[in-house]
Design goal:
about 400 residues, mainly alpha, Fic-like fold, 2 domains, two-stranded parallel ribbon, 16 helices, about 5% strand
Length: about 400
C-alpha cells in the first residue's frame, strides 16, 4: 500500500518539544487566589511534519489496509430505494452531531432535523452550534473535492463556517493570538492537562500542516490520522478545534478519493472511546505514531461498516413502507418523496417540491398519502404551511447512533 512504510522501529523520537514559559500574576482578576496566580508552565510545540517520513509497524499497516478496504466497499455500495444524496446527507448529519457531542453539544436527531428544516432564530441555541458543524462538514467535503491545495485560509474558512452563527462568532476564522490550554482552571495554564504552542508558533505550524495535507505519497488513512493529531496538538483556534480537526479528516479522505460518495461516521466511533481517542494525541506526540494510526484506522474501519449497516436498515424500512403503500410505480411522486426522506425527514410541500421537482398539488397529495399510511406525522394543524415529520426514520437513526456510541463490549 502506497505510503505505508513498515520498519523495525528503534527508540521513538518525540514529535515536538516543550517550552518553559512564565505566566504573569494577575492581582486584579476576580476569581480568588488561583485566578491571580502566576508561575511557570510548559507549552508543547509540535515538530514540523511536512516532509517527514513515518515508519509504521506491522499491526498499524494491517489496520490501515483493513480500513482502506472498508472505505472502498462503502464508497462503491449503491442504494436500492434511497437516492445517493439522501443516504449521504443522513450519514453526514450523524457524523456532525457526533463530532459536536464529543464537545458536550448534544441534541437529538429529531431536534437537529427540525432545526435543519427551519433554522433557529438566534445564537446561543445548541441547535445553531450543531448546524454550524453540519455546514462546516459540508464545506470541508467541498474543499476536499475541489481544491488542489489546502491553505491556512481554507482551514480558517471551515472554522468560520462552524462558528458564524454561534456566540463565539467574533473569533470565527481567526487563529488564536493568545496562549490557550486544556483542563486545569479558566484563568491560567498552570497545572493544565495540555498547553498547546504559544501563539507565535501557530501560523507556521498550520502552514506546515497544509503542506503535509497536500502530499500524495502517503496512504490516505495514515495522512488523515497524522494530520488530525497534529492539528489537535497545534490547537490553532480559541474554540472549535476538535470539530474543525475532525472535519479535516474528511478534507483528506475526499481529496484522496477514499470517501467520494459517503461520509463514514468516524466521530460516532471515537465518541465511544474518548479516553483512548484523546490519549492517542499524546501517543502521537511522544513518537508512537504506529499506536495512534492503528487506533485511528480501527475507528475508520468500524465507521465504514456501521455506515453500511445503517444504510441497509434505512432501506429495509423503506421497503416496508413501499409494501404499506401498495408498491407504487417507480415514477410515482410518493415513491420519489420516500426515497428522499433520509435527506429531509422533516418536510413541507415546498421542501418536497424542491426535492422532487413535481407540482404543488401532486406533492401535497403524496404527503397526505404518506400521512394516511402512518409514515409521516403532521406537526401542525394549519391549513397552509403544514409540516410533516418521519418519526420512524429519526428513531431508527437515533437507535443506531446510541448503539455505535456505546463502547464495544459494554451492554
Amino acid at each position: 500500500m502506497k505510503g505505508c512504510q513498515v520498519a523495525t522501529l528503534g527508540p521513538r523520537e518525540q514529535l515536538g518539544r516543550f517550552e518553559r514559559r512564565i505566566w504573569k500574576p494577575s492581582p486584579n482578576v476576580v476569581g480568588g487566589r488561583q485566578a491571580r496566580k502566576g508561575g511557570p508552565y510548559h507549552a508543547f510545540v509540535p515538530a514540523p511534519i511536512a516532509d517527514r517520513s513515518f515508519a509504521l509497524d506491522d499491526d498499524a499497516v494491517s489496520a490501515i489496509a483493513s480500513a482502506t478496504k472498508a472505505l472502498s466497499r462503502l464508497d462503491s455500495s449503491q442504494p436500492r430505494f434511497s437516492s445517493l444524496s439522501a443516504l449521504a446527507t443522513s450519514l453526514l448529519r450523524s457524523e456532525s452531531a457526533a463530532s459536536s457531542r464529543i464537545e458536550d453539544l448534544a441534541i437529538s436527531q429529531k431536534r437537529l432535523a427540525r432545526a435543519t428544516f427551519k433554522r433557529p432564530s438566534g445564537p446561543g441555541d445548541r441547535a445553531i452550534e450543531v448546524l454550524g458543524n453540519v455546514e462546516a462538514m459540508i464545506r470541508a467535503i467541498d474543499l476536499g473535492a475541489s481544491a488542489t491545495t489546502i491553505s491556512p485560509a481554507d482551514i480558517g474558512e471551515i472554522h468560520r463556517t462552524l462558528l458564524r452563527f454561534s456566540v463565539d462568532r467574533k473569533v470565527a476564522g481567526s487563529f488564536r493570538d493568545t496562549q490557550g490550554w486544556i483542563g486545569g482552571n479558566d484563568y491560567n495554564p498552570i497545572g493544565a492537562a495540555y498547553v498547546p504552542p504559544p501563539p507565535e508558533h501557530v501560523v507556521p505550524l498550520v502552514e506546515d500542516l497544509c503542506q503535509f495535507i497536500r502530499r500524495d505519497d502517503i496512504a490516505a488513512v495514515v495522512q488523515a490520522a497524522i494530520a488530525h493529531a497534529q492539528f489537535e496538538n497545534i490547537h490553532p483556534f480559541p474554540d472549535g478545534n476538535g470539530r474543525v480537526g475532525r472535519a479535516l479528516i474528511y478534507v483528506i479522505l475526499r481529496r484522496r478519493g477514499e470517501a467520494s460518495n459517503y461520509i463514514p461516521p468516524i466521530s460516532l466511533v471515537l465518541a465511544a472511546e474518548q479516553r483512548s481517542y484523546f490519549g492517542g494525541f499524546g501517543s502521537f506526540s511522544r513518537g508512537d505514531v504506529s499506536a495512534w494510526c492503528e487506533l485511528f484506522a480501527a475507528a475508520v474501519e468500524r465507521a465504514a461498516w456501521e455506515a453500511e449497516r445503517i444504510a441497509a436498515r434505512i432501506e429495509d424500512r423503506q421497503a416496508q413502507w413501499l409494501k404499506r403503500l401498495g408498491n407504487p410505480r417507480r415514477d410515482a411522486v410518493v415513491r420519489t418523496i420516500l426515497s428522499a426522506l433520509p435527506e429531509q425527514p422533516v418536510t413541507d410541500v415546498a421542501a418536497a417540491q424542491a426535492l422532487t421537482g413535481r407540482s404543488h398539488v401532486s406533492v401535497q397529495n403524496a404527503l397526505r398519502q404518506l400521512e394516511d399510511a402512518g409514515i409521516l406525522r403532521r406537526l401542525n394543524e394549519r391549513k397552509w404551511g403544514r409540516v410533516w415529520e418521519c418519526d420512524e426514520l429519526l428513531e431508527l437513526v437515533e437507535d443506531f447512533e446510541e448503539g455505535v456510541s456505546t463502547p464495544q463490549g459494554v451492554a
